[in-house]
Design goal:
The protein is an alpha+beta fold. It has helices at 2-24, 104-122, 148-156; strands at residues 39-42, 55-58, 64-66, 130-137, 191-196, 207-214.
């Protein structure tokens, strides 16, 4: 009888230890998901005005919209078809002439993001509703790598350009010009990846972008 009691005591101790371990990592101790119909970005800690979010939580039953991949429109009809300069937005850069320091990737990025804005508007959305972005960049002719710096300047004209504490616009540079008011004032900081690929589907494209946006309740 003594031996049987000893075994039972050992088993009971093991079960108690196991139960404690499970309770310490139980579901009720985890972060709560966003409320239904809402999107909540997880912003990097220690950064006053980050460019992108670490990730985004999407609440249940949130209606979303996904664009196709869009590149720049061939608006510079004075440039040869299929050339990189063909995709300079002449509404932003009259005659297709780029100001000092504005790279061709930066100019094409602005063009592509304007198209994204038009796509969103047709769906009843705005840049502020974007929560995820995917970006594909091709090397400009003669360059060994994609122009990520130029792309980021274009991106900042439309996203992540509002101070999260004061609510005021953050000046953004266009090329090497002094920073000034961004094209579209927008505090949204979507989750994002941007990567270099060998070829984009349209000759002359250096930028292709697609986004996900959420309809507001």
């Amino acid at each position: 009888m003594f031996g049987r009691r000893t075994v039972i005591a050992v088993v009971t101790t093991a079960i108690a230890t196991c139960s404690f371990t499970i309770a310490a990592d139980a579901w009720w101790d985890r972060p709560k998901p966003p409320k239904p119909g809402t999107v909540v970005p997880a912003l990097p800690a220690g950064q006053a005005n980050p460019m992108i979010a670490n990730g985004v939580g999407i609440g249940a039953n949130t209606p979303i919209y996904k664009t196709s991949g869009l590149g720049p429109a061939a608006l510079n009809t004075s440039a040869p078809a299929g050339s990189e300069t063909r995709y300079v937005d002449t509404e932003v850069f009259p005659g297709g002439a780029l100001p000092p320091g504005v790279t061709i990737t930066e100019a094409q990025g602005i063009n592509a993001l304007r198209r994204i804005g038009e796509n969103l508007k047709a769906a009843g959305l705005t840049y502020a509703d974007v929560y995820t972005m995917r970006v594909f960049l091709q090397n400009p002719a003669g360059e060994p790598i994609a122009d990520f710096a130029g792309w980021n300047r274009a991106y900042r004209q439309y996203f992540a350009n509002t101070d999260l504490v004061t609510g005021k616009p953050i000046p953004v540079p266009l090329g090497t010009a002094p920073p000034t008011t961004p094209f579209v004032v927008n505090k949204a900081r979507p989750s994002r990846f941007a990567l270099e690929i060998e070829n984009l589907p349209v000759p002359g494209w250096l930028v292709e972008v697609e986004v996900d946006a959420a309809y507001r309740p």
